[in-house]
Amino acid sequence: MGYLLKVILIKLFLFLSSGKLKRVSMKVLFFAQSREIAGCDTQQITPHKVLTQDEFWLALDTLYPGIAALKKTARLARNETYLHADELLSPDDEIAVIPPVSGG
């Protein structure tokens, strides 16, 4: 997908998510490194449709540049259950962005 097309799709997503129409909010929870990049614990977004996980990451990276770097290592959980690669995200879901953590 070309850069210009990505920019257009992002702007369209943001316009449709702007709240001008009554939309259901998706609650996004950030943990560990994702919280550091986002600068907050939670964020409400209002997608206009069901999202693929790639579309979700693209939307997040628009709001928080650099967060998509976590895509390869972070896990997404929907409504407190880890997602498989092909699962979709509904506008009324609660999504957690969970980077790998270490402890001991």
Notes on the structure:
- The model has no long low-confidence stretch (mean pLDDT 87).
- Strand 3 and strand 4 form a beta hairpin.
- It is built from 3 helices and 5 strands.
- The N and C termini lie far apart (42 Å).
- The chain has one domain: Ubiquitin-like (UB roll) (Roll), CATH 3.10.20.
- It is α+β, with helices and mostly antiparallel strands and 104 residues long.
Précis, in short:
This protein has 104 residues and is α+β, with helices and mostly antiparallel strands. Helices cover 31% and strands 19% of the residues. It has a single domain, classed as Ubiquitin-like (UB roll) (Roll).
Q: Please tally the β strands and state the result.
A: 5
Instruction: Report low-confidence residues grouped into runs of 5 or more.
Output: none
Structural class: alpha+beta
- Measured between the Cα atoms of the first and last residue, the distance is 42 Å
CATH-scheme architecture: Roll
What is the chain-wise order of helices and strands?
HEHEHEEE
CATH superfamily: Beta-grasp domain
Number of domains: 1
Q: Give the amount of beta strand, in percent.
A: 15-25%
Binned, the helix content reads 25-40%
CATH topology: Ubiquitin-like (UB roll)
CATH class: Alpha Beta
Order of strands, widest sheet: 2-1-5-3-4
From the alpha carbons, calculate the radius of gyration and give it in angstroms: 14 Å
Q: What's the helix count?
A: 3
